[in-house]
Structure formats: C-alpha cells, structure tokens
Write a structure and sequence with these properties.
The chain is α+β, with helices and mostly antiparallel strands. It has nine helices and 15 strands.
C-alpha cells in the first residue's frame, strides 16, 4: 500500500495548509471573484463574476469551477490527472477496501473558490463512464468527514461530452459551501415527499431533473452500508435520465450526458443535451457544468452577468438541458405496478 494513503478525515484537515502551500509555490492559481444573488423560480441563484479569467483563460484539460471547453480528446497523452502528480497539488491517496480501487486527491490547479479539490481514479477511467459503487462510497465518506470537521462540501460529476466536463480522466469535484448547501439543495430540502425511498422531481424548474432523498447516515456508517444506500438510488436516477433522453426529439447521438450533484441529503441527476449556451444579443457563450444546475453560475464580465439575468437562468439551463417528462415516467411506473398486482 502506498505511504500516502490517508483517511477521508485526514484529507479534509490537510486541505487549508496544502492549498496555501500550493498557491504560494505557484503550482496553484487562485482567481478572485465576486458573488451576486439573483432570485428566480423560487431559487436564490449565485452568479460568480471572475474578470481575471478574461486575462488568463483556463487551459484545456484542466477541470474547475471556471468555464471550460469540450473534453480534450488528447488528454490520455497529456493527462494532468495521471500519476506522478504535482507534489504541491497532491493532498493524498484514498483506497476503497472492498474494490481495492485507488484514488488520488488533488487540489484544483485553477481555483476560483478556496480548497476546491478533485477525487481522481489512479487508473485511467473515462469521464463518460457512470459512477461505480466505490466512487460513490469514497465521495460520501469525504462529505461525512467534512461535516464532522464542521465544514460543508458537496460533490459533483460531469459525465459525458455535453456535460461541461473538461478532462476525460474520471474525476469527481468538491466545493465548500454555506451550511444550507448549494442553492438547488434548498429547493430539494423543501420538497414535501408523499412517499420516501423513491426518486422525485423539482417541478418548479423548467428542465428535466431527477432527485433522491438519502436516509440520514452517521459518521460511523460502514462502506458496505454506504454502498447499499447510495448505489441503488444512483441506478434508479440513471434509468430515469436514459428514459428522459429517449423521449427527447433530436437528442445528439452517442452516450447520454448528465450532471451529478451529491450532498449528504440528496442525489441529483440532470440529463444534458448541449454543453454551451449562447446569450442573446451579447453573443457570449457560457459553458455550463454541474455547478450551473447546483445554482452556481460563472461569468467573466459585467455584460455577461447582465445578459444572463436578462435571458433568465431557467431559460439558459433549459437550453442546455432536456424537457421534463416526469409525469409520463410516474404514470408509466404506476401502470407497471398495476400490471404486477393484476389490478
């Protein structure tokens, strides 16, 4: 076993000092930004203005909160997420006991928020592949460790070429947020569920979304318990994503793209049709990844911010997403249940 294998709690506690060291050494670039709030469709969206990105664009092949282009097809040959890692960006390694899968934990080299980090597979796995049980377990263990350390993180995964992913090596990203979570999570928490243990949809937003409310889990939950609690909901949400895409006319050929947002309370999957959206008269192109659907959007100028607000955030997200067919899916499930019972 590699000497840098750590516990999730050690990873979380090491982040502040590692971030400071990486920034002072010049291995990590931090871009200052300002956040404004924009109320729309019952959500207080966060619009982050980072004008510094105009002067120093984020290179292709680096993942981050910053806008990015399509997945770099040459990244297998120039893979920044393959060992050996840049020492100052390498927080440590994690190892899943049941699957023996190994991960590197890296600081995001181009950060707009402090302590933004990535969980990357040691072995190359494509960003077009779904999350596996051990991916979900290690992700959730990090979220639990953060909560125990009185920090609140959420995780996200951009899956597929139209998801806003910028790197083809499988990686899950982690962002620290306020105690009530990313903006979309406040809407999920407010949802009144008639039946627990089943996927639901946030009907007030104008794009297809599939959400599952997770049971309360303690810091002492075993990896086996986490796998049981996390993987079946993920599969059920992924089935709904595929079903939604099948209903979408003229959906791009190939493997469906989608975004995953994971908090301690909910798992969100959002099917994607396009990676970018062009803002009306300004002609500015916004790249949208999971953070957009979490309620946290990025712009590089005041004019882009104004254009986004005029266009309406719901319109932008619907433009890169898919129309909801949740009612049809619920009706189909009810029909299947009736067939099984013979009523």
């Amino acid at each position: 076993m590699c000497s840098s294998v750590m516990k999730a709690s050690d990873i979380i506690s090491a982040l502040p000092s590692r971030f400071e060291t990486a920034q002072s050494s010049g291995d990590l670039f931090f871009f200052p930004s300002e956040v404004s709030k924009h109320e729309e469709i019952g959500i207080e969206w966060e619009i982050r203005l980072c004008t510094a990105l105009q002067k120093k664009p984020v290179p292709a092949g680096e993942a981050g909160i910053a806008p990015s282009n399509q997945i770099d097809e040459t990244s297998k040959n120039s893979d920044p997420f393959a060992p050996p890692y840049v020492p100052n960006l390498h927080v440590g390694d994690l190892r899943d006991e049941s699957s023996e899968a190994e991960y590197g934990v890296l600081l995001n080299k181009y950060s707009v928020v402090p302590h933004h980090f990535l969980l990357v597979t040691k072995e190359f796995m494509p960003q077009t592949s779904p999350l596996m049980p051990h991916d979900l377990v290690q992700t959730y263990l990090l979220l639990l460790a953060a909560r125990k350390a009185h920090k609140n993180y959420f995780a996200f995964y951009n899956c597929g070429s139209n998801s806003g992913a910028s790197q083809s090596h499988k990686h899950i990203q982690f962002i620290e947020v306020e105690d009530d979570g990313p903006p979309i999570e406040r809407l999920a928490k407010a949802a009144n569920l008639e039946v627990s243990g089943k996927p639901f949809s946030l009907s007030s937003v104008p794009y297809a979304n599939h959400v599952y409310r997770l049971p309360a889990l303690s810091n002492g939950a075993s990896p086996e318990q986490l796998e049981q609690v996390l993987f079946l909901p993920f599969l059920s949400l992924l089935d709904l994503v595929i079903s939604t895409v099948r209903h979408a006319p003229d959906y791009p050929p190939g493997t469906p793209s989608y975004n995953v947002i994971l908090t301690l309370e909910h798992m969100h999957l959002i099917p994607r049709r396009w990676e970018t959206y062009t803002l009306g008269e300004s002609g500015a192109t916004l790249s949208i990844n999971s953070l957009g659907f979490a309620g946290m959007l990025m712009v590089k100028s005041e004019s882009e911010c104004q254009a986004l607000e005029q266009e309406k955030i719901g319109t932008v997200l619907r433009g890169v997403g898919v129309e909801s067919v949740h009612d049809l899916q619920v009706a189909g499930t009810s029909m299947e249940a009736m067939d099984e019972t013979g009523t």
